[in-house]
Design goal:
Elements (H helix, E strand, L loop, with lengths): L1 H7 L13 E6 L2 E7 L8 H9 L7 E6 L11 H8 L3 E6 L9 H7 L4 E3 L3 H7 L1 H6 L7 E8 L4 E4 L10 H11 L4 E5 H7 L16 E5 L20 E5 L5 H9 L3 E4 L3 H10 L4 E4 L3 H9 L5 E6 L7 E3 L16 E8 L2 E7 L1
Parallel strand pairs: 3-4, 4-5, 6-12, 6-13, 8-9, 8-12, 9-10, 10-11
Antiparallel strand pairs: 1-2, 1-3, 7-14, 13-16, 15-16
The structure holds ligand AOF and zinc ion (ZN).
Ligand AOF binds next to α2.
């Protein structure tokens, strides 16, 4: 199953909003077929693994990271293929939350195939957090915050300069990460300080370029800002407050960006969800990150810890409203990874 999860990750950036799925067929302790879902709407992991195994699938155990589908969608039901191939046993990591496609486990069992569900379930849930969020009944998108932070908790110097805190490996990782989100968000002050473009410029080209979303309640981002150069080819949305003059938003619209006027951050996020944005990666600044965390709107944190001290500068998470250790916000570290000299921490509630 661990191997199947690793294979599933290869679909990152290419299969969303569908799930990342990997499958491994094992017979007599030998891997006889592997597969993963590689392109949205294309063949499912299970049928690719079955095709790779051929006749060896008969009597084999199928390890698959998601419950096999039981419906005709863009692809035929995987359960039919599994039964036709004579697979002896199926091990599933995660039950399918999709009401249209699920039911594969029950069908396999009804056909006499033993099925186990839940092996490495935490890892499978984490892998498909964006997919699961779609079926969890929330109006807002799945929200992750990514920050590159110094040892003294800063994300920029006092003038707002942040290039660069982290090293090249961490910056490559961020481009890979961006490819798996429907939107990339940033606060206005950080956008201006960094002249950020929020485009995906790594080895992995996402199937759909993430929408770039600027949170600028006070309307301080000028219409001349570089991020608007590529709009609307790679869409830019500006979320601003009611106090922003209409002449200013008109100037931004004229640059090809879409403007959303909403003072409340949670409501603005619900509006993004209503526009079918299912996931959002926030890349700063510290005030936007802090406001989201304080409001309970963050589902995951990617914090890149760099071996750097900045002294005076901008805090990574500001305005949390915590003044007493007894009120500290405590999350769990679900992954740690070395990225050159930096360390990636993945945190969840
Ligand atoms: C995938 N890839 O490997 C598996 C999926 O429209 P379809 O036919 O591609 O079906 C999509 C649904 O099928 C998806 O939401 C999930 O519930 C189920 N399994 N989907 O895209 C796969 N195994
Ligand atoms: Zn399927």
């Amino acid at each position: 199953m661990s191997r199947a999860l690793t294979l599933a990750e290869r679909g990152w950036g290419r299969v969303h909003p569908n799930p990342l799925v990997g499958a491994v067929l094992v017979r007599d302790g030998v891997v006889v077929g592997e597969g993963w879902h590689a392109e949205y709407g294309d063949r499912h992991a299970e049928t690719i693994a079955l095709a790779a195994a051929g006749d060896s699938a008969r009597g084999a155990t199928l390890y698959v990271t998601l419950e096999p589908c039981n419906h005709h969608g863009k692809q035929p039901p995987c359960v039919d293929a599994i039964l036709a191939a004579g697979v002896a046993r199926v091990v599933v990591s995660l039950a399918d939350p999709n009401p249209v496609a699920r039911g594969g486990v029950a069908r396999l069992r009804a056909a006499g195939v033993p099925v186990e569900v839940g092996l490495l379930g935490d890892l499978a849930r984490r892998l498909n957090a964006r997919f699961l969020h779609r079926f969890a009944g929330r109006a807002r998108p799945f929200i992750a915050v990514k920050l590159a932070v110094t040892l003294d908790g800063k994300i920029a110097d006092a003038a707002g300069r942040s290039q660069w805190i982290s090293g090249p490996e961490a910056r490559d990782f961020v481009h890979h990460l961006r490819a798996g989100f429907a939107g990339i968000g940033i606060g206005g002050r950080t956008l201006v300080a960094d002249d950020a473009r929020l485009t995906v410029r790594g080895r992995l080209t996402p199937r759909e370029a993430p929408i770039r979303i600027v949170f600028d309640r006070s309307g301080m981002v000028p219409a001349t800002q570089g991020i608007f150069d590529g709009a609307p080819d790679v869409p830019v949305w500006l979320v601003t407050g009611t106090a922003t003059p209409a002449t200013h938003t008109a100037g931004i619209s004229a640059r090809g960006a879409q403007v959303l006027v909403e003072d409340s951050l949670p409501v603005a996020l619900d509006l993004l969800g209503a526009r079918d944005l299912d996931s959002l990666l926030i890349e700063g600044g510290g005030r936007l990150a802090g406001a989201l965390l304080a409001e309970g709107l963050v589902d995951r944190v990617y914090q890149i810890q760099s071996p750097v001290w900045l002294g005076a500068g901008r805090d990574a998470w500001s305005g949390l409203g915590v003044h007493d250790i007894r009120d500290a916000i405590r999350w769990h570290t679900v992954e740690r990874r070395a990225l050159g000299d930096d360390t990636l921490l993945v945190l969840e509630r």
